[in-house]
Structures are given as C-alpha cells and as structure tokens.
Design brief:
elongated, alpha+beta, single chain, two-stranded antiparallel sheet, binds zinc ion
Length: 72
C-alpha cells in the first residue's frame, strides 16, 4: 500500500477535481489518511498532477516566468 511521504500514514484513494483558468481537470489520486483529519499537510498526488498540468498550460501561453510566480 502507498504511504504518505511526509508522515508514513496509509493513503486513501481520492477522486480529484479542479477548475482553473477555464480548464477542467479530473484525476484519481491518493490522499494521506491523516490529512483528512487535518493532522498532515502533505498534498495529494492528484493536486500535484493538477498543478503540473496547470503549469504546462501556463507555459503553453508563453507567459513570462515572473508573472507565473505571481499567479501561483
Ligand atoms: Zn501524511
């Protein structure tokens, strides 16, 4: 079973959904069991995946990096 990289707790399956910059992202990932109860601040893999896709999208627009930093 996958474990949280931050606290070592087992990870639960999670369906992620996010809408950013008029684009929708759906993904399935894992979330730390302790994060569910607020005891861990590890970000879910789904959130990281969404963020990666979002950054790729920003890059595709050729936005200067210093502006991307302001957005994120
Ligand atoms: Zn954790």
């Amino acid at each position: 079973m996958a474990k949280c990289a931050r606290c070592g707790s087992p990870l639960s399956g999670k369906h992620g959904y996010s809408k950013r910059a008029n684009k929708e992202y759906r993904s399935q990932g894992y979330i730390c069991n302790r994060k569910v109860v607020g005891a861990c601040n590890q970000r879910s893999m789904a959130e990281r995946y969404i963020e990666t896709q979002f950054i790729k999208y920003l890059n595709s627009l050729n936005i200067p990096p210093h502006i991307v930093d302001d957005v994120t």
